[in-house]
Amino acid sequence: MIEHIIVDGFVRYLGLSQIMLTSIGVFVGILVGVLPGVGPMLGVILMTPIAILLDPVAGMSLLIGIYVGGSCGGAISAILLRIPGTPMAAATLLDGYPMAQKGEAPKAVGLSIAASSLGGLLGGIGLMFISPFLAQVALKFGPPEYFALALVGLLSIAVIARESTLKGLLSACFGLFLATVGTDPINGEERFTMGSDNLMGGIGLVALLVGLFAVSEMLIQLEKGKLDIKPDIKVFRAPFSVVMLVLKRFINLLRSSFIGTFIGSLPAVGGVAASFISYAVAKAASRTPDEFGKGSAEGVVASEASNNAVCGGALIPAFALAIPGDPITAVLLGAMILVGLLPGPTLFSNYPDVVGGIFYAYIGSSILLLFIGILFTPIFVSIIKLRKNRLIPIIVLLSIVGTFSVQSSMFDIWCMWIFGIIGYGMRKLNFPLAPLVIARVLSPVIEPAFRRSLILSGGSFSIFVSRPICLFILILAAMLLIWTVIPKKFWQDIKMKLSTG
Amino acid sequence: MRGSDKKSQDIATSVFCVFLGAMIIYLTYTTFPQEGQAVGGLFASSRFYPQLVGGIMILLSIIMLVSTVFKKPVRKSTGNADDQTKNPQAAQAGLKPIWRLFLFILILALYTALLETIGYFLLTPFMLLALFKLLNIKKWTSAIALALITSFTIGIFFTWLLQVVLPEGLFTL
Questions:
Q1: How far is B95 from chain A (nearest CA, A)?
Q2: Which residues of chain A make contact with B49, given a CB cutoff of 8 A?
Q3: Measured between alpha carbons, how far is A11 from A2 in angstroms, rounded to an integer?
Q4: Of chain B residues 132-171, which have a CB less than 8 A from chain A?
Q5: Whether complex ipTM tops 0.90
Q6: CB atoms within 10 A of CB B98
Q7: In this predicted model, what pLDDT tens digit does every residue of B113-157 receive, in sequence order?
Q8: pLDDT: is A2 or A421 the higher one?
Q9: Spatial separation of the C-alpha atoms in residues A79 and A419, rounded to whole Å
Q10: Which end of chain A is more exposed for a tag (fewer CB within 10 A), N or C?
């Protein structure tokens, strides 16, 4: 299988349109990553209607380019404005901003781009070699194992929403309910359609995502006000020589990339944790730890290499098991389904060239990130100066046209507005949106797997504990649930008691 | 937000979620097609999964309600779950946030209602102009130029490059 992925995938990817779309994706990704409040998730959601209209590998090249570019773009505003464009860039701020204060902004931005590119490349190698292996194992899975895996993915939602576990789980339940609108996947009966033909195919995923994220974000920004502010920043170029500075810190780069890839493959942990962990490890391993926090290049390299390697890591369970590693990957999975690709082990066996093509799209994105990031630094720095009162209507129009273009349906646009208001309300009430998205994407896996398992066993739940792999995964799920249910204070007390002996 | 306000809000939200869960279960009995004897058992029924989800939602909401009622209110300001900045800023000069939100939604609702009748290329520049003025772009020339450039650039990109048919309305261009 892996030979087909590597060879046929390369042939499938190597085309002008794929490379061009990857480049456009990386460029757009950095653009949206640079703007606080926009981010790669919104970029992927807004470009999904365009990706659907393209060849599957070409469409995914665009979206993965945005994912990779966006994961790096947040560092630029973190360095220049002390505001991370994406949460993953929060650790980069610790040393990137002090570097900018010392007049080393071009070096800091260049380092972040180069480290992201090389870190992402190493994550891509992990993706290329680990996910086929995982997919081979997953081919032996039956409905009970798929259900158990999806349950772990769903419960990891509670980990994301650690600060509000109940609200995260309720948000997930709402996502599970929304997925039931339409037709029953087992017997084809209509559910919650209220006699409407528009709802027979379910609630459009693009309308749901655009509404929940893009529209609600616009409403939040409108409420906050101060839309006319223009930051006072001088435009500059980043030097290509930063690549040598990153390579001189090769051990830091390799270590941080490994941490990022590993953590990315764990559902729900994500880029923020990876970048902070890598930063902390780099500081502990450094010969000059006192320089961290005051403008150390090591700190920038560690956090940026890690948070881009996370992208490759997160795609491992997504492709091999159809379990998203983070909310953006959940959106990518949804996009894959919309372009006609069903993620999971059967994708590897039936379409190894497509899988390989998408892996090369990821690797290509990481390589192109270096050139596009550094060459177009002046543009990205200028974008930070764009006032929100010009940006918001553009995003609104893109949302409308993008959503309409999926099915040429005005109903989808109305759904988008409704979910925009729902998303706004949820955010005001501190309900996280990511669990809803992950549940909505996973529900088409969970429901059929769960019901088929019980139909096969004649209604006996013992089917879930009599199969060793399923039992192992369910034990993991139980441990995850216990960890989220028990208050943080309990673990802190245990830790204190252990440390005082 | 004061602790007591947040507590009241969480109680109201919990009650709403209980109602939502109950509504889901109720709708499975009243709106789903009648099932005959040959449906294949409980787990093959289309009602099973939504009822399970509704039941879990009710259970979680009750837990949240009970935990909120018995929790001591904490005096601290709270932000939104996904916001990057914690404290909302003061209203922009000229219009209170609530009116700005209301007008924003009204403009977009009107646009959506009229889009198929009037058509994308005729209606969109006006919609964008209204939004730019609402968001305080003072110069009319800038607002008009931005509205025209944005609507035609995005429209041409989707219709010519991606072959998407946008609403033409009564006035076909």
A1: 10
A2: 180, 447, 450-451
A3: 14
A4: 132, 135-137, 146-147, 150-151, 154-155, 158, 162-167
A5: no
A6: 11
A7: 999 999 999 999 999 999 999 998 888 999 999 999 999 999 998
A8: A421
A9: 34
A10: C
